[in-house]
Design brief:
7 strands, seven-stranded mixed β-sheet, 215 residues, Rossmann fold
């Protein structure tokens, strides 16, 4: 289901234009195989944020086939460090990133993001953190990545409304996702209560949170 309604989502999707033909091909490929990539309205908002922020470096947790990494690099020429837990997805992402000509800007690291972040050099600093991985671990990703954020860095989290389930149990009809739902609710409450982050939760795509960090 959509978190608004089909009519509004269809209208917004019809406004979508991708000026990069190779990126459009990658989107079509991913969508045809039900590979989870950022939705069209999510992509449009991310592009606007990127152009306003003009980040030099982006840290991404959750690469999938590399689509969003390429969007970031294509949008503002930033350097992207992206972490993917699945080995096969990481291989596919590297191939796609190379085919689109962004291999000089995007580095794919394969492994558990929690382990990689815990071992990362503290001198690493990023302007934007984009979290789009295992929903149950968003708070861990946030806390582990925070040492690499600076004053006025932004943290963007995708899929935080989880097809409406975060807002209401009625969308989890069979009760299959209780743990993930409760963890996401706790995460949303957590980031909204932080004194060093100003956060907005938006009904864009499958729900997105945008936080501005103050240090």
């Amino acid at each position: 289901m959509n978190i608004t309604n089909e009519i509004i989502s269809s209208y917004i999707d019809n406004l979508y234009v991708n000026e990069n033909a190779k990126l459009e091909e990658l989107r079509e490929f991913a969508e045809s195989r039900n590979v989870p990539i950022i939705l069209k309205d999510t992509e449009k908002l991310l592009k606007v944020v990127m152009k306003l922020k003009e980040p030099a470096r982006v840290l991404e947790i959750g690469t999938a086939v590399g689509y969003s990494s390429c969007v970031f690099a294509d949008c503002c020429g930033c350097r992207v460090l992206t972490i993917e837990s699945d080995e096969e997805s990481a291989r596919a992402a590297r191939t796609n990133i190379e085919n689109l000509g962004f291999d000089s800007l995007v580095e794919v690291v394969q492994g558990d993001a929690r382990e990689i972040l815990a071992e990362m050099d503290e001198t690493e600093i990023f302007d934007i953190l984009f979290i789009d991985a295992a929903k149950s671990h968003y708070r861990e990703f946030w806390d582990l990545a925070m040492p690499f954020m600076k004053d006025e860095s932004m943290v963007i989290c995708d899929n935080v409304l989880m097809k409406g389930m975060t807002a209401s149990d009625e969308y989890d009809e069979r009760g299959r996702y209780k743990t993930s739902i409760n963890r996401m609710r706790d995460f949303i409450q957590y980031i909204n209560g932080l004194d060093y982050a100003d956060t907005a939760v938006l009904p864009v795509g499958d729900g997105m949170s945008i936080s501005l960090i103050s240090k």
